[in-house]
Design brief:
The complex is a heterodimer of chains A (606) and B (387). Chain A has helices spanning 13-54, 72-91, 97-110, 115-130, 132-152, 156-177, 197-209, 219-240, 253-262, 268-305, 308-328, 345-360, 371-378, 383-386, 389-416, 424-430, 475-490, 511-521, 536-545, 591-605, and strands at residues 434-439, 444-446, 452-454, 462-468, 497-503, 529-532, 550-551, 560-561, 564-568, 573-579. Chain A is α+β, with helices and mostly antiparallel strands and 606 residues long. In chain A, α1 (13-54) runs parallel beside α5 (132-152) and α11 packs antiparallel against α12. The radius of gyration of chain A is 31 Å and the shape is flat. Chain B is mainly β and 387 residues long. Helix content of chain B is 7%, strand content 45%. Chain B has two helices and 29 strands. Chain B has helices at residues 10-30, 174-178; strands spanning 42-46, 49-57, 65-72, 79-81, 93-98, 101-106, 117-120, 128-130, 143-146, 149-154, 157-161, 168-173, 186-194, 200-206, 213-218, 221-224, 237-246, 248-258, 261-269, 275-277, 281-283, 288-294, 300-305, 310-315, 322-323, 331-336, 349-355, 358-364, 371-378. An eight-stranded mixed β-sheet of chain B has the order 4-3-2-1-22-23-24-25, with no helix packed on it. In chain B, strands 17, 18, 19, 20 and 21 form a five-stranded antiparallel β-sheet that branches. A four-stranded antiparallel β-sheet of chain B has the order 5-6-7-8, with no helix packed on it. The chains are: A alpha+beta (606), B mainly beta (387). The A-B interface holds A 1-5, 114-117, 184-186, 471-478, 505-508, 510, 512-513, 516, 520, 552-560, 584 and B 26, 29-33, 56, 66-68, 81, 83, 85-91, 106, 109-114, 116, 127, 129, 131, 133, 379-382, 384-387.
Chain lengths: 606, 387
């Protein structure tokens, strides 16, 4: 029956098993990439060995090439954020991600944002919802790949490119996944992660992408700390702003937020911590907010001073504040089955910590290359013959990491341009189509143009048959659009297929209503579209023969009818019976059409 | 004496203006989107009976709000559900009656973008479908029926149909009414009715202040009524909320918008064709008109509500607005029952209180001092059936 609200649960076994299966297939691809890298390594080393032999040497030089060290601040950023990307990628492995992320994470994050933000976020949600398995698997590999990339490529262009790749992906996640960190929403607060964890990842990516000479003086570190100071003071002002509900205790914004957070799925101990803190805020809301405002303002001011002792004190205080907030307000961010990252506190501390390191640990001057290695680096020849063991390993590892990113990106890009949603959604919701091989029940009805149409008159064509209410407000227009989309997807084969709907309303069944429905849904010009009606007796006979239940609903309800579609081959035999209920939301639009198209293709082949 | 030269805005002013513009821009981005207009519940009464349209169910969720057509039984405050079947009515209903004939229009909702009709020739006992080529707007009197057929407002066009309602044709468009040269400057089509003479009438909003857009059709074409609002409303723009004729004088309920705020006033047409107006009833800031009911004899009853309080007012031709006792909590609509309850005199009205699927009808006591519950009905609703 239309609109009876069957929802697809996040743990749907078909979706979860396909998610795992896709990940396994892609893992095999990743292993293959690893094997190719090993082969590439051997090829390069063999070429190098032959060159050495040609120069009269029997072995690789043992003296390591001495160059300048990677700046410590950059290393902190690279390793820290590389590890965070890997953690985020592993969190994406959770089985609830394919179906749960849009409704459980992304849309709630955008719920209080203005309409244009929600519109933008929903465009991303649509792509994810249409292709949940490809999207979830892509996110796993992209984030794992980014993390590995940052970890294995410490220097040079590959490393800087890794930083830029992190910025690109981070901005996508910030806009489409975090609704810009809620900066356009009215309740913006540092306590709940504003301006979004991934924005810190992006800033870190920009710093990693800078030339290493930017880390040669304390200037960059001072800029990072000063920006952090301004940010914290701004957040303090926002926290102190009257009328935003943060000065209230019970019924205040902060209490409501903390209590809501305590109710999210998480370990019991953590839930009780957060809930207790929520009660504490309820009782002492004004004091808690005053403490937060003062703490943010003071730490921000200390960072702004630019003087090392003050900065160190400020960072220490901020670390304590962040850890307390992370545990008591943000509930660590990654529990409950849909956590995507450890939230904003860790990346912020990591970023500001690297800023401090950049002011106190400057890179040493480059040492002159010596001995055989010096000879090797100055001898002309292709790079793979001149590169050291370390260079070869890291370059190949970076290439492998990029390939891992592409393992996720390529299928997602293909899915994003596919107008049809993944047919597995329909199968997950409505079950696998029932294969049939029986004569289709005959019918003789009248089409929207007043012509008599029967099963016999359509013989020779494959028929996609369904039952639609011309004054339906929900499912029927969606089903009609899915039929139309399946028709378009068939391309040149569509002239061998007829799309037929039979009226499923015992009252509103006149041709004026079927024509109005056709105009409403843009079906009027389709030459192979038939919307059939007839006397109530004739309609009831067809409904009964196809097992369609139709019943009026009193007091303002929509006529209830079975959402079933049939594929009938050119010999008049039923091949498939499909449930075409579009489900409680429109995310399944076009998923059914892809499934229907595949079944029509099979019927055409018989 | 010469005036000092005017100074330009200067760079600081420019920066400040940019900052203010930026702030306004972000404030506009953060502003919540305005909700779609909801139909106005209410009732109509004729010599043969009374009808009311009332929302029921989970009123905060449009998909679980089911509108009911209630039929009032003459001589009592008893109401029965007469909602026609076959179409989901979550978008709202509009109803019009003439004698025993009743026409109901289903307003578009969700993916349904046109308005099916349902017609009863026997006072709501049996219903038949009828087709209207277009979508009705969410206003109470966009549909009317009379002995000569029916009128309906679809977008910027008024359609007319013969009594069978089988075919509809264009009667007049908004542009056609503008072309009459009316000083009202019609802005939108608001309501339709058949005058007691059977002539089609169309009401429009007016873009020029102080005028009310009422047009009557005759063999000579469309004639604008010369209705000018009194003194302090002469700059107010107007729209016509309801337009009714048949049981008594032709009556219009007009909303006037001016710098002073919104005010409503009733207009009555006398037998000579002259129009008279009631005193304006101010709608307090933060309040809105939630229900309007036209009664026989030209009575007009309105429910004005804010988030904290609700008030019911009634006006009769030539009389002042009378304020009734505060209606019961949960009142969603009111109906005038002047003919139905003659013992109540000139202050008879019913209030409909909805709590999910429960409908309670309250009537004013004969003295008009308080509301008493006279009927409680459970209306089975198919929650979740509309998505």
């Amino acid at each position: 029956m239309p609109g009876m609200g069957r929802a697809l649960q996040t743990g749907n076994s078909l979706i979860v098993s396909n998610f795992h299966s896709t990940l396994l297939h892609q893992l095999l691809l990743v292993l293959l990439i690893g094997a190719l890298c090993v082969i590439g390594f051997n090829v390069v080393r063999t070429l190098q060995y032959r060159r050495l032999k040609a120069h009269g040497q029997d072995a690789f030089p043992t003296t390591p090439r001495v160059t300048s060290e990677e700046p410590m601040a950059r290393r902190v950023l690279r390793i820290g954020f590389g590890s965070l990307w890997i953690l985020d990628g592993l969190l994406q492995l959770q089985s609830g991600m394919p179906l749960g992320l849009p409704s459980g994470v992304i849309q709630p994050a955008a719920a209080t944002s203005p309409g244009w933000v929600q519109h933008l976020v929903n465009s991303g949600v649509t792509i994810w919802s249409d292709h949940p398995i490809e999207a979830a698997a892509a996110t796993v590999w992209i984030q794992l790949g980014l993390g590995i990339w940052l970890l294995v490529a410490p220097r040079g262009r590959w490393s800087r490119l890794g930083g830029l790749a992190g910025v690109g992906w981070g901005l996508l996640v910030w806009a489409f996944g975090e609704a810009f960190g809620g900066i356009f929403a009215p309740g913006l607060t540092w306590l709940f992660g504003a301006p979004g964890a991934v924005l810190f990842y992006c800033v870190a990516g920009v710093l990693i992408a800078l030339p290493e000479r930017a880390f040669a003086t304390p200037r960059l570190g001072r800029i990072v700390l000063a920006c952090g100071g301004v940010f914290l003071i701004g957040m303090a002002v926002l926290q102190a702003w009257p009328g935003r509900g943060y000065w209230q205790g019970r019924n205040g914004t902060l209490t409501a937020m903390v209590q809501a957070m305590s109710k999210t799925p998480q370990p019991g101990l953590l839930s009780s911590w957060v809930s207790s803190f929520g009660s504490f805020v309820g009782a002492h809301g004004w004091g808690v907010n005053l403490f937060v405002v003062v703490a943010l303002a003071v730490t921000g001011t200390l960072l702004l001073t630019g003087r090392r002792p003050f900065t160190l004190i400020g960072l220490g205080a901020l670390a304590l504040l962040c850890l307390a907030d992370w545990a008591l307000v943000e509930d660590f961010g990654f529990f409950g089955g849909l956590g995507t990252d450890p939230n904003s506190m860790l990346p912020m501390l990591l970023l500001l910590g690297s800023g401090y390191v950049a002011t106190v640990r400057l890179p040493a001057e480059a040492a002159e290359p010596q001995g055989a290695a010096a000879t090797a680096t100055t001898t002309p020849g292709p790079w793979w013959e001149r590169a050291t063991l370390s260079d070869v390993l890291r370059s190949l590892a970076a290439v492998a990491a990029l390939a891992v990113v592409l393992v996720g990106t390529a299928p997602m890009a293909e899915a994003a341009v596919d107008r049809n949603a993944d047919p597995i959604l329909t199968e997950a919701l409505d079950g696998t189509p029932n294969a049939i091989d029986a004569p289709a029940p005959p019918f003789v009805l009248t089409d929207q143009h007043g012509r008599t149409v029967s099963l016999q008159s359509l013989r020779g064509h494959v028929i996609a048959l369904t039952f639609l209410d011309p004054v339906c407000t929900t499912d029927c227009p969606l089903i009609a659009q899915e039929f139309r989309q399946a028709d378009e997807s068939l391309g040149g084969q569509s002239h061998e297929v007829d799309f037929v709907a039979v009226v499923a309303n015992p009252i509103y069944r006149a041709a004026s209503f079927t024509n109005a429905f056709d105009r409403q849904e843009g079906l009027t010009g389709l030459p192979n579209w038939y919307y059939l009606t007839g006397s109530l007796t004739a309609l009831r006979r067809v409904w009964d023969s196809y097992g369609i239940e139709v019943a009026t609903v009193a007091n303002g309800g929509m006529v209830a009818h079975s959402d079933l579609a049939f594929v009938i081959d050119g010999h008049g035999r039923e091949r498939d019976a499909l449930i075409d209920d579009p489900g409680p939301t429109q995310v399944f639009a076009s998923s059914f059409s892809a499934l229907l198209e595949s079944r029509i293709d099979q019927a055409l082949a018989t | 004496v010469s005036a000092p030269p005017e100074e330009g805005p200067g760079p600081r002013h420019g920066v400040a203006a940019c900052a203010v513009a930026l702030l306004l821009f972000f404030l506009s981005l953060s502003a919540p989107a305005s909700a779609a207009p909801a139909p106005l519940p209410g009732g109509t009464e004729s010599v043969t009976g009374a009808w009311a349209v009332v929302p029921m169910g989970q009123l905060s969720e449009p998909a679980n709000t089911f509108w009911q057509l209630l039929k009032g039984h003459p001589g009592s405050s008893a109401w029965s559900v007469a909602t026609p079947e076959g179409v989901a009515d979550n978008g709202g209903l509009v109803a019009a009656s003439s004698g025993a004939e009743v026409v109901v229009g289903f307003l578009p909702s969700q993916l349904l973008r046109y308005s099916p009709l349902s017609v009863s020739e026997d006072g709501g006992t049996t219903w038949n479908p009828a087709y209207l080529p277009g979508a009705l707007a969410a206003r109470p009197d966009v549909l009317t029926v009379g002995p000569s057929g029916a009128l309906a407002i679809v977008g910027t066009t008024v359609l007319q149909a013969a009594p069978s309602l089988r075919t509809w044709s264009r009667l007049v468009s908004l542009a056609g009414l503008r072309a009459t040269g009316s000083r009202c400057a019609p802005g939108a089509l608001d309501a339709v009715a058949f005058a007691s003479s059977g002539a089609p009438m169309v009401a429009t909003s007016c873009l020029h202040g102080g005028w009310v857009g009422l047009f009557t059709h005759s063999s000579a074409g469309w004639t604008p009524a010369s209705v000018v609002l009194p003194g302090r409303l002469r700059l107010a723009t107007t729209s016509v909320l309801t337009l009714s004729a048949g049981a008594g004088p032709t009556t219009a309920l007009v909303v006037a918008r001016s710098a002073r705020g919104n005010e409503v006033l009733a207009l009555w047409e006398s037998a000579s064709g002259a129009w008279s107006a009631s005193a304006p009833l101010p709608i307090p800031s933060g309040s809105s008109l939630r229900s309007a009911a036209a009664g026989s004899g030209g009575a007009m009853t309105v429910l004005v509500a804010s988030t904290r309080a609700k008030s019911v007012y009634q006006v009769l031709p030539g009389g002042p607005w009378a304020r009734f006792p505060s209606p019961p909590a949960g009142t969603v609509a009111i109906a005038s029952t002047l003919l139905s309850s003659p013992t109540f005199g000139s202050i008879a009205a019913d209030a409909f209180v909805v709590d999910g699927a429960e409908l309670r009808v309250f009537a004013l006591t004969p003295a008009g001092s308080k509301w008493v519950v006279v009927q409680t009905t459970q209306v089975p609703l198919a929650y979740g059936s509309s998505g």
